[in-house]
Batch of 2 targets.
Target 1
Amino acid sequence: MEHVKITTALIVAVLLQWTLRNVAEPLAFIDFPLIIVVYAALQGSSIRALFYGTAAGIATDALSYGLLGANGFSKTLVAFVVAEIVRRVYVDNLLLRIPVIAGACLLDDLVYYGMHRLLGQEPTGEFVTTLAYTVIGTTIAGTIIYLLLDSFFAENVKNRRREVFTARRQTRRRNPIRLGNRR
Amino acid sequence: MVERSQKEVWKITPWVMLLLLLGNFALMAFDAREANSRQRVIRVWAQTSADFVQSPVTFISSAVTNYFSSISSMRTAQSENDALKQRVQELEVEVQNSKSLAFENERLKSLLELKSETAYRFLPAQIIGRDTSAWFDTSIINRGSLDGVKLNMPIVTNGGLVGRVTAVSPLTAQVSLITKDKSGLGAVIGALGTSNALGVVSGTGKREILEMGYVPGSVEVNVGESVYTTGQDGIYPAGLKLGEVAEVRAGSASEALKIFIQPSAKLSSMQEVAVLIYEPPARPEFDKSLPNANKKK
């Protein structure tokens, strides 16, 4: 059921990416598919996150002037890096997720830009400005979206925390005072 | 279904990633190599399917925006109404004048035995989408190959030239703006045929400004003069308005002027555009054979 929910969220994210820029220009600086790909990677399902990254990236590229596959490449790489971080470090906390999404967005943009330059295509956007706006926009939107998604996946979050932190052994101690009273 | 342990999953993850990265890289390499020839089928499919989402969203969002803007404009309606009434009276006088001028024009044309003909056909279109990446700045219109739109057809508004078609699907087309960094087109300041200020207009990456180069430093150019296409680039027809000269940086007899142009089309806020059904005249192919090679008889 969790996979269905994340897949649905990813489809919605791609649709938002296709349409929202025409409603308001600043919304171009929010990378909705990346937010969901990183969320999938944060759940610990690494292989699924890789496939989500490729699918969402190609869907985004299809309606862009950029190279077909550039977003797929960068998002797949980001999904892998985030999944590796999740494997080693505990980031199941909203405050810890903020630097993760910011870093993921930065890496995604750098790889995307780099691949275009490597293959002789010059992106139109100014490098520093576009990079900064995208990181800020995606981080803010990502934090809010993660709050919403966590409320949808509340049960899974609880289970995951239970796996990470095993329950403390409950030992019953005798109360010496009470023992004393018996005497 | 085979259940894999977490350890096995982590083992195969890098390989899956490599496979997917290679697939994406192959797609990119293919796309980059063929960018200037024909289009990708996958792009055509994606654009067509996206139209079913983009069109309704654009329709709804513009309806909501129009509703709220109509409420806010009610406040100024009375004063505008008075001003417009006055303007209508003025225009009526102008219309009478222009009618007599048009009549005179027809009479003179018939004297010269010239046929009045419309040069190009316009196809009105609406912008239904924008580039999905913040790194690029293209637009998507709701007209495609089924409407007769073809690659490289010019896009105009009532203000002037906007750009050209860079990808076509059956229902939609992708439009690249003239302000794009690598765009370039032949232009002239003033009337074609009489002005010597010929040059190349290129995009700067910013929507508010275009740059014109290769205009000889000896030519006099003034701020506010209009700039038109020359048609020599083989894409755009001659006589389309590009904008007006905003700044001139002086050159010398041996150094070209650097001219900045403000586009006359409102590129930041346009919603309605028109596709100019224009195909440039075919150019003769160059003889690619080697001069000393034996030709087959």
Target 2
Amino acid sequence: MTPRIERLREYTVSKLQADGWKEIDWSKSPELVFTPDDSHIQRALRCFLAVLKEEEKNVRFVPEEQIVFTRTVKNLPRRYTTVEMNALRSQAYYHELGVVFNLTVDYESALICGLDALREQTVSRLKQAVSENDSEGIEFLEAVIMGIDGVCSLADSYCSEAERLGLSDVAKRLKQVPHKPARTFLEALQMIRILHFALWCEGTYHNGVGRVDQYLFPYLQADLIAGRIDQDSALEYLEEFFLSFNRDSDLYVGVQQGDNGQSLMLGGCDLQGNDACNLLTELALEASGELRLIDPKINLRVNKNTSIELLKKATALTKLGLGFPQYANDDVVIPGLLKLGYELRDARNYTVAACWEFIIPGVGMDIPNIAAVSFPAIVDASLRFAEQNCCESFDGFLDIVRQLLFQEADAIERRLGDVRMLPCPFTSALCKGQISAARDASSGSKYNNFGVHGTGCAPAVDSLAAIKKLVFDEKQLTISEFIGILDSNFKDSEKVLATVRNECPKMGRDDSSADDLAVKLLNWFADSMEGRKNCRGGIFRAGTGSAMYYVQHPSEIPASPDGRLQDEFFPANYAPSLGVQTKGPLAVVRSFTKPDLERVVNGGPLTMELHDSVFRTSESIEKVARMVQFFINRGGSQLQLNTINRDSLLDAQKNPANYRNLIVRVWGWSGYFVELDKPYQDQIIKRAELTF
Amino acid sequence: MNRGNESERSGKGLVFEIREFSLFDGPGIRTTVFLKGCPLRCVWCHNPEGIAATPELLYSVRKCVHCGVCRSVCSLKEGEVCKACGECARSCPVQARRLCGIYMTPEEVVNEALISRDAFESSGGGVTFSGGEPLLQPDFVVETAKILHGKEIHTAIETSGFAPLETYRRVIDSVDLVYQDVKHMDDKKHLTYVGASNAGILENVQWLKKAKKPFIIRVPLVPTVNDSIANLSTLADFLLDADNMLGVELAPYHAASGGKYELLNRTPPMVFKEKQFGDEVLSPFRERGIRARLL
């Protein structure tokens, strides 16, 4: 890290930028008082322009920075009153905040053409819309033009202020971008910064930046060849770029602080399928490791041929405990996406949404986290159904599980019969095909799929294994007795609790009597989603992610047959049940790669915790890298390795002031441990009890 | 002890853990077989559950919820000694009790280890025998290693070297790589802190130096006990002229490893103050052209 980056980093982690944040009283802005006649687009546009205008008043530079744009507006204006929003929600389903979110726009094209050219395209498309009397198109395209003008105007203000302050390099770059195409690596980084900043201003959230090492590499390469920069300065600029993601992130709160979806993807293949790792792939791993901050969230695409050298570099990052990188295996993800109907070149271009959901940059308007199935709840309901309907065999019981999974899928489809999204015209302009279609991305893009998480696979599998053994094989308990025990939270049933915890097969021990049930369960989950069309012209995708449901779902059922007590959590994502002693990471990998993961490709990583002492020697980096390779070769789809130390976590709960910088992986993102709510802290401590 | 010997004669080994993906026990991805029973009594021992050569029960006070189920299933009569049948461990709902040590045939151990064969092959790994002291169960180690070799699996051993030379040679000959401990060069100190003379061990190491077998010397670096430059220099001199020695590894003492004593209802014989070691402890070796590093 250069001294300049160290100072910029210090500025950011000390939150000095927060001095400039302004809480705006938007009720004083007459243009933001909406009438029922104001359309969704009008509201979106006027709010967006108001934020940009406010930002123009507060142009702000961080000392020594080269990549500018710092957010000052703390609160975005509301497009709808609570009453209006409730009225909308009573007519249709609006997911989360209701607006366009959880996507990666087409930065690559924006860099190549610049906003002026994009504006020209929009103007000419507008003429066509006018001639066709397409009023919806006219409104959208006009909003795009005004949005582009607003963003450019803010950039111009930054440019003149930079000139006034004598920041000539910054001013020079702002004369080029975002108006015109980026020509250099630094211009490209500045342009991405501006566009990404603008997305947040428009209200779009969980904004990923996609495959940065792919679309930024041509600029770096040209600079290197022309001798404009060297590798060291490339790393320095990349680090400054990464720092910019942390500057405003306190304003981008999701379920928890840090859950902001600023993910990026490295590595993988090009659109022809060739290995596309390059110098930037490695520089990005290095930059993230040097900065040690929670943003951007680093993902790395790998495959059977990924070199052990790259995996070692990635493991060196794992060692730092940021929960980066999260691996995605091309060998499984690409075929999985193809099976779901994705075009080959799109499948090869996949990235992740906020956490781990696989999406295609620029053409994906999926809602990849729209619903979640709680597998343990299905098992619980199956027990109760079986009690009423006399179930004689375990196969019969599994039939019930399967049926209830399908019923749950039906219910999800019914519940999502009318899903709408609120527009974001500027964001849409940066998505492929929206200008030529003259429609906002909220009305649909190339891919409009719904992703359904599957929570608690392992506790459900362990529960099924316990039911099989105790109820059907050994007939120690009747279904009614078992239900009674669960409802009483195993009170006065310590022997049964001991039996289910100690004597029953568990997923994660490479024991086929448990793992075969996982194969079945995930296949049925995929079956239950397969062939369903959603209301937005897309399909349903099954996945193995949990998001925050590992805390919410357990509270919806009593204790479960695997010996999980009522107030205990599910594991995060796709992982062994908490408290289950496995044989080791290889056994876990073996167990969790037995199911056909191509079929549950909405995403959701196998999550494993490593103790920080694992990395004591240089060889151990290679060994962990070999384990990642083992995972890839076994057909795993996604892997998250977290390096933690339980003692530090416990101490951090007691003395948070000493652990301000302690970073942990939560579910699909990394955050500062001391900023998490206690249940999330506790779940991570529980995970840390059985590190490898 | 008797039961252990009988089982040894019947070809079984007393194993207290088979750990896959062990990171510090040799090249590549390895599975380590921990054999129970040790003739030495190092005061800093951090595998105390490996000392007794019989199965025993571990009990975690911290986890115990005092539900009494273990007592209700125990068949022990007044005045009888626990036979470590393990019934209480199986019946414990919170896994506060664990049976430590089971008798396994070489084939059973090999089968368990072979599960990771694909990982061994892709990473250049294999199987390591550790303990306890594997030399206490020589026939079992030799037989298991023989089967593994037949399957082209690399084998290593971690040993104190405390055994008659004939036993030592037989076991060392059966494996591919040796991690040989040397705890102290001074016989008196060795006797005090380890509970036995180092004479036989050093005699075995002398033999090892001339054998063709690649080996690494390991020193548990315990502050105030064996971390003096004088002791390390004596060791370095002793290790000169061994072409088959790959290097020396110094493993600093960690007090936290004492946590396992609680499970045995014992306290660590001695607790030392942890120390941050630097290059100074490596120089006696490096000055003599011996590769050395801290773990």
